[in-house]
Design goal:
alpha/beta; Rossmann fold; 36% helix; 7 strands; 5-stranded parallel sheet; 11 helices
């Protein structure tokens, strides 16, 4: 029989950040010559810092997670939810929302943090990530977690779902013509043949309401992609599948992300879009960067989490005006949450 898990309380982010848009159901282009341009960039940078920091906290409480892929996607998630995507956290099934699929589902700790920051569920839930009775499982469950569009786990399956969703939106008629489908893939995931089947179908049906974003962080579970199974020349292969390809050369530069996705809003020219997002696995934590050992491993104690949180603060938090008390309080709130009941399986030795 399960019990209620005591979830540790993390410090409040609201003194330091609030969403850039008051109404997330409405899009407004922000261009470099606009007065709001510096504000959106700074806002997204603070959000990316918070995503990494709270994700470190939640993974440590669970003693599991995927920090490498969660950290490489942080700036993309910040810009996506702060600027690109139309959604309503109070009504997750709002019929006119844009759709986002996380195909590299093991990196869900970063997405969970993003959803919590935008109000899909309480921040306190992050402390229960991966534990019994939590709705934040180690891979997403759309039946239990607001803001998740599809359950996932096995790599290579969701790009095909995204292609079908984009085709269905087109066939819903002109009232849905402005809606977009975004899907974030891992670069190692592109070793799966089903991913290329999705690219082929999207190109065949000319789904220009679909954006494939590839988190090209160069590292997968057991080593470097270039050594395990190279996907180069990636841009050329995507173009051969009739995709309109764009490269973001620094996926941690929020200005490059904002400018690219502003341009892509105008590109409805009969081809699905592909964005190659050049990132660093484990970005902002030195021992994680380009290190396959941190693909699957998370901090196992508050001391390690505190060291990571301090490093994140020294790189970004200090510059962004976050007081040093914030990472200290976040580290102090770490509480390892074990399973709350024993293994129900009993082992019996068979007598000869």
């Amino acid at each position: 029989m399960t019990q209620t898990v005591p979830i540790p309380a993390a410090p409040d982010f609201r003194p330091y950040w609030r969403p850039f848009r008051e109404r997330t159901t409405v899009l407004t282009d922000v261009l470099p010559f606009h007065a709001e341009y510096p504000a959106v960039l700074r806002n997204c940078e603070i959000l990316a810092y918070l995503i990494r920091s709270y994700t470190t906290h939640s993974m440590t409480c669970a003693a599991l997670g995927h920090p490498g892929g969660s950290f490489s996607e942080a700036e993309f998630l910040a810009v996506l939810y702060n600027y690109v995507l139309r959604f309503d956290a109070a009504h997750p099934k709002w019929p006119m929302r844009d759709v986002f699929y996380l195909s590299k589902c093991h990196a869900c700790p970063g997405l969970y943090t993003t959803l919590a920051l935008f109000g899909y569920f309480p921040m306190r839930d992050l402390g229960g990530y991966g534990c019994w009775d939590s709705h934040l499982e180690s891979h997403p469950d759309w039946l239990r977690t607001p803001g998740i569009e599809i359950s996932g786990g096995s790599l290579g399956q969701i790009p095909g779902v995204a292609t079908g969703r984009a085709l269905a939106l087109r066939r819903n008629g002109p009232d849905h013509g402005d809606r977009m489908v975004y899907v974030l893939l891992g670069d190692g995931e592109c070793n799966e043949g089903s991913v290329w089947e999705a690219f082929m179908a999207a190109g065949h049906y000319r789904l220009d309401n679909l954006v494939f974003v590839i988190d090209y962080n160069k590292v997968q579970a057991k080593g470097f992609l270039s050594q395990d199974m190279s996907i180069e020349p990636l841009a050329g292969k995507l173009r051969a599948f009739n995709l309109d390809v764009h490269e973001i050369h620094n996926g941690h530069d929020v200005s490059e992300l904002v400018d690219t996705f502003t341009r892509l809003r105008q590109k409805r020219c009969g081809k699905p879009l592909a964005v190659i997002l050049h990132t660093v696995k484990g970005k902002k934590v030195g021992e994680c960067q380009y290190n396959p050992n941190w693909h699957t491993s998370a901090p196992r104690n508050a001391e390690t989490a505190g060291r990571w949180l301090q490093e994140l603060w020294e790189q970004d938090g200090r510059r962004l005006g976050i007081p040093p008390e914030f990472p200290r309080a976040l580290a102090a709130a770490v509480e390892i949450v074990p399973p709350v009941h024993a293994n129900p399986d009993h082992i019996f030795e068979q007598q000869a």
